[in-house]
């Protein structure tokens, strides 16, 4: 995903030109938003909804009656178009030597998200804040009460805290125009379950330092759980975590902070093993021969193991070349460059994640657990994670460990070819998963 930096300005006028870029079996919608400022200067941003890019700043080289030229140095790309009329631009998008036809018309792209709820809602919501003492952060969120909630049924009403995956995200865990946590909160509210979802620290309406590790994110979640208990408005207090949030759910369970937990594609395997398996699966999905994907994964594991040990690397290219030579592995220049990036990318969050072993926490959990994965998840592989949970989780008839056929990391229905096309898939989350969560919570409340 592209890291976005919002360009703040006072705009008098915004014109959006959009078109569809065909990349073989895949298609991307691209929009250029041209903003005219108060001093008549123009600036431009780009949206690629299917890749989660919004208001990405680009350089407006030329925009007149005849042409539109946009440069994207960070992406090594540009667009050059000829204005056929006020309603049509014929042009080409070029990136790293590859050129694609891209015709534009004056319109805004709206992706179809049929599951996203829209107001008015049949239930009450409340904007709230709570303090995360460890991180000195004020976290802003939305508390959603279920339909027919009142003081008489308050103490029999379960409530869940929702914890997002890695990276800074808003309370809806909004990615690729999908609002996963909003969809879940809506479904829970319609079925008698309250929820609290919040903006990650230092993002959207929440304050605090955006940097941190899984341990810092755990502290924020603990503060949210304590806030819900202090309200004394609900019965049992649980957590629903997605991806890294699912791992945090296991940690909350190990600390006996929650009455029940749901892990949606949460990592249970050791961080280094999870990421090596993830990389191997994605390479295979992209058509890399299995033997080469295995070789790449073997070198990557050595890099990560050295990183865990804190072994310094002064020349990344020489270091990777030496590893490949010692392991008698030959890789393409592109794969070698990828390995070089893995030596130090991700900062302190990655250092923590690589070394962390969630199975230690899973062995200490005593509350009911629902843990799910999709068979087509290539970010947290079901075959590498669900067995770890089943092996280490203390036995209980209340647990539900389930693998869903043909679901990806966001628990969307997909095919092997579309498993990573999160933005192009209209479904936000499988209705079966939503239904199973409600049924399971109702059985343990």
Would you give an account of this structure?
By secondary structure, the chain is of the alpha+beta class. It folds into three domains: 11-106, Beta Barrel (Lipocalin), CATH 2.40.128; 125-270 and 356-444, Rossmann fold (3-Layer(aba) Sandwich), CATH 3.40.50.1820; 271-353, no CATH class. Helices cover 30% and strands 28% of the residues. The chain has eleven helices and 19 strands. It has helices at 180-189, 214-231, 244-254, 271-285, 290-309, 316-326, 333-341, 347-355, 359-362, 382-392, 431-444, and strands at 11-23, 26-37, 42-48, 53-63, 67-72, 77-85, 88-95, 98-101, 105-106, 125-132, 137-144, 159-163, 174-175, 178-179, 194-198, 237-242, 260-264, 369-374, 400-404. The strands form three sheets. Strands 8-7-6-5-4-3-2-1-9 form a nine-stranded antiparallel sheet, with no helix packed on it. It has an eight-stranded mixed sheet with strand order 10-11-15-12-16-17-18-19, with helices on both faces. A hairpin with a 2-residue loop joins β13 (174-175) and β14. α2 crosses α3 (244-254), α4 packs antiparallel against α5 (290-309) and α6 crosses α7. The longest helix has 20 residues, at 290-309. It is globular. The model is unreliable at 1-11 (pLDDT under 50).
């Amino acid at each position: 995903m592209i890291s976005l930096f919002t360009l703040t300005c006072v705009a008098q006028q915004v014109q959006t030109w959009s078109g569809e870029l065909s990349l073989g079996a895949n298609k991307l919608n691209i929009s250029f938003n041209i903003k005219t400022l108060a001093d008549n200067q123009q600036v431009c941003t780009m949206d690629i909804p299917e890749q989660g890019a919004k208001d990405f700043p680009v350089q407006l080289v030329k925009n007149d009656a005849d042409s539109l030229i946009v440069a994207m140095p960070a992406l090594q790309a540009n667009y050059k178009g000829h204005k056929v009329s006020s309603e049509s631009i014929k042009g080409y998008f070029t990136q790293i030597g590859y050129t694609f036809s891209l015709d534009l018309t004056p319109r805004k792209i709206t992706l179809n998200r049929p599951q996203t709820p829209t107001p008015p809602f049949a239930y009450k919501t409340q904007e709230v804040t709570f303090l995360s003492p460890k991180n000195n952060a004020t976290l802003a969120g939305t508390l959603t009460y279920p339909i027919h909630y009142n003081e008489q049924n308050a103490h029999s009403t379960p409530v869940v805290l929702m914890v997002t995956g890695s990276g800074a995200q808003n309370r809806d865990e909004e990615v690729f125009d999908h609002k996963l946590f909003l969809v879940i909160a809506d479904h829970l509210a319609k079925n008698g379950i309250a929820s609290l979802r919040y903006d990650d620290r230092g993002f959207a309406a929440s304050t605090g330092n955006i940097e941190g590790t899984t341990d810092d994110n755990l502290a924020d979640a603990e503060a949210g759980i304590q806030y819900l208990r202090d309200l004394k408005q609900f019965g049992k207090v649980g957590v629903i975590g997605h991806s890294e949030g699912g791992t945090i759910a296991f940690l909350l369970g190990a600390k006996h902070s929650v009455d029940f937990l749901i892990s949606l594609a949460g990592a249970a395997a050791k961080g280094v093993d999870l990421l090596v398996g993830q990389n191997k699966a994605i390479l295979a999905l992209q058509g890399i021969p299995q033997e080469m994907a295995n070789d790449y994964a073997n070198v990557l594991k050595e890099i990560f193991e050295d990183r865990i040990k804190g072994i310094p690397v002064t020349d990344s290219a020489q270091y990777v070349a030496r590893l490949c030579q010692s392991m008698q592995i030959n890789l393409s220049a592109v794969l070698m460059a990828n390995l070089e990036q893995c030596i130090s990318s991700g900062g302190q969050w990655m250092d923590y994640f690589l070394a962390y072993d969630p199975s230690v926490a899973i062995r200490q959990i005593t509350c009911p657990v629902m843990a799910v994965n999709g068979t087509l998840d290539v970010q947290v592989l079901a075959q590498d994670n669900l067995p770890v949970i089943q092996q280490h989780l203390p036995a209980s008839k209340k647990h539900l460990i389930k693998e869903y056929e043909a679901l990806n990391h966001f628990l969307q229905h997909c095919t092997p070819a579309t498993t990573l096309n999160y933005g192009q898939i209209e479904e936000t989350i499988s209705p079966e998963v939503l239904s199973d969560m409600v049924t399971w919570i109702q059985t343990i409340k």
